[in-house]
Structures are given as C-alpha cells and as structure tokens.
Amino acid sequence: MQSTDNGTFQIPTKLFRIGEIVRYTPFTRQTIHNYTTMGLIQESDWTEGGHRLYSESVFERLWQIQELRKTKTLTEIRDILNSEDASPLAVS
Fold first, then answer.
1. Claim: this prediction has a pTM higher than 0.85
2. Number of C-alpha atoms within 13 angstroms, CB side, residue 8?
C-alpha cells in the first residue's frame, strides 16, 4: 500500500488468476480460456510470468453468461454483451 498526500491509503484492486475463478465458479479452466478468446470476458492485466489476471467484475459477467446460456448460443451471447458494453449508461 502507498500513502497519498492526504495521509490515506490507496488500496490496490484485487485481481484473480484463472485458478481462483475456477475455484469460486462452476466453470473449468478451459471454459474461462475459451470465453476470454471469444471476447466474452476480458483479462484486466497480466503477471510478469504471462498469466492472465481478471478483476472482480468477471464474476458478474460469468453469472450473466451462465444465465444467457440457458436460452442463447455463445455467438448470440457475445453479440448481446458487446451491444451492452457499447451502449451508454442510462442516466436517471
């Protein structure tokens, strides 16, 4: 942790390796890799050794994919998620 000018701490964001995602979800390592390759999920960073790292938001995205898989193909899911990512957030 680093101290900022005002004396508070800057807490680093937790990043997860594929193995951690596999441990906490019903998805296999190969599925996570395939979803990354297809563009359904994205890595946030890489380790010095070349391992993918994912942010906490990947868990919400995987839940979305799991729900959509009940009625949609992976290609349809990719199109749905890409259109959601491209649309601006509605402001109330």
1. no
2. 4
Residue at 37 is within a domain: yes
In a domain, residue 75? The reply is yes
The CATH number covering residue 29 comes to 1.10.1660.10
What's the structural domain count of the chain? 1
> What residues make up the domain containing 44?
15-82
Q: Which residue type does 82 have?
A: N
Q: Which pLDDT belongs to residue 11?
A: 80
pLDDT band at 70 (very low <50, low <70, confident <90, very high): very high
Q: Are 40 and 61 in contact (CB under 8 A)?
A: yes
What is the tens place of the pLDDT at every residue in 26-64? Answer: 999 999 999 999 999 999 999 999 999 999 999 999 999
Q: Are 30 and 22 in contact (CB under 8 A)?
A: no
Domain contains 47: yes
CA distance linking residue 28 with residue 86, whole number of Å? 28
